[in-house]
Amino acid sequence: MTDIINQLGVGLGQIIGLPPKIVDGAMVVVAADDSRWVIESPKNAVSVFIHSALFPVHDDSQMLYRLLELNFQSDVLRSAWLSINPKKGDLTLCASFPVETIDAPLFYNVLSNLFDVKQNVLAMLNVKGSDFNSAVPNSTHSSVFPIDMNALV
Hints:
Elements: H1 3-16, E1 22-23, E2 26-30, E3 36-40, E4 47-56, H2 61-71, H3 74-77, E5 81-84, E6 90-98, H4 104-124, H5 129-133
C-alpha cells in the first residue's frame, strides 16, 4: 500500500465518518449510485489516479467519435478524460492529481466533482449509469458526497 493512498483513506474516513478499506494498494469507493471509484498510486508515483467505469463500449464508430469529441470539451470533463479500459472494454472516466498537492479535503472535493462530471457525461450520452453499475449489492447510501459508507471496500 502506498503512503498517499493510506493517508487519503484515513482522511476520507475522518470526513465521512468511516475509514475505507484499502485492498492491494488501491482504495475502492462506492458512490450512492453504486458506481465504483478506484483510487491508486503506484509506489514512488508522482500522481494519484482516480478512475470509474461508465459503461461497456461496443464497436460503434459514431459513439467512439462522440467520446473522442467529449475528451476535447474541457468545460464538461474539467481536468478528467475518457479512456477505454483495455482489460474490460469499459469506457472509463479518469483523472490524476499530483501527490504533493492532494490532501483529504481536496480529495473529497475531487471525488464530488468527478461524480458530477460522470453524471453529466452519462446525461450527454443518454446513458443511465445505474444500469451499468447495478451489480453492487445491498447498499445503504450516505447523504454526504454520494458515498455508500457501508460498501467501502
